[in-house]
Design brief:
The chain is of the alpha+beta class. The strands form five sheets. Strands 11-12-13-14 form a four-stranded antiparallel β-sheet. A three-stranded antiparallel β-sheet has the order 1-3-2. A hairpin with a 2-residue loop joins β9 and β10. It is globular. The chain starts with 5 loop residues before the first helix and ends with a helix.
Length: 365
Amino acid sequence: MAGPDLDALRRYAVARTLFAPTTLGRAIGRLGFVQADPIRAPARAQDLTLRHRVKDYVAGDLERRYARLPIEEDCLVNYGFLPREHLALMHPREAAKAWDAATRRKAQEVLDFVRSKGKVHPREVEAHFAHGRVHNYWGGSSNASTQLLDGMHYRGMLRVARRDSGTRIYEAVDHAPPLDDSPAGRAFRAAALLELVVRKYAPLPASSLVYLTRLLRYGAPHLQAQTQAAMREALGLLASARIDGTTWYWPADENPASRRWATDDALRLLAPFDPIVWDRRRFELLWGWRYKFEAYTPAAQRRLGYYALPLLWHEQVIGWATLSSKDGRLTPTLGYAAAAPRGAAFRAALDDELHRMTAFLNGGR
């Protein structure tokens, strides 16, 4: 059987993740992981990702319904939302950087406080302990209590019970030790984590597979050696093809050349971290131009805009849009990788997507 060509991989990359809209819990289950980002321009990335995959989804549904669903905020290759069942693959998490005795003592004091309260807002912790300010990762300063709570959440001492206006509300949690922490048990969990990210981001160029394996150090730093070994083993188990000098990998039970991977006529504005566009290496190989998320780029250096949403039409990402709103009406500023599409079909598809986006932002109205 002849292997897929680049056109087939492009259709496969789009169609396999744009499944028919379903329930919120099922969509997160199928995706395996939804990356989170706090910027709202026009909505948070997790909401923009889910709107294409959850029936009648509106901005904020994830935050509103989170506490009633078997999902968790946690880390995988970055921070986001994932089915609760996946936590057992990573917890108890052994952080790469150990705390000193003073930090461990503070964390235990905060944990005792959280247990006594049940659920706490970071302001309550700061008011009780007055930890002060600390230098943060970006060179500025941040609330020391907030940073400590982040570290406790990462280490599996706390979980996010819900959010109030975007702020995490924490409660204590106990992660059961793994049933099998032998070398074989650790290898099994590492292989399951690797399969999770491959199924989310396939098809993957070889360099991206290596990169994702490295990123798993975030979610499972204590399994770093095992995830590297799992990747080496996966190279012989995954399906693959070499196209134009690049080796691509995907799950062995899927066939990118199958007719099942058909795209529709809808036009979609994608989140910057949507699985279709997340892998910038793959993006450039599949669509022939470079997309960059520029929210943290100085304004004078931006090429696409502060929050450029990739513009998917059929199986092609043809450009990007930034959105502005006036009197409840969305107006896109469009940019194109090549020539702008002509004709009534494109204009109608764009109008339909702007109407869908408006309803999504306005609670379905």
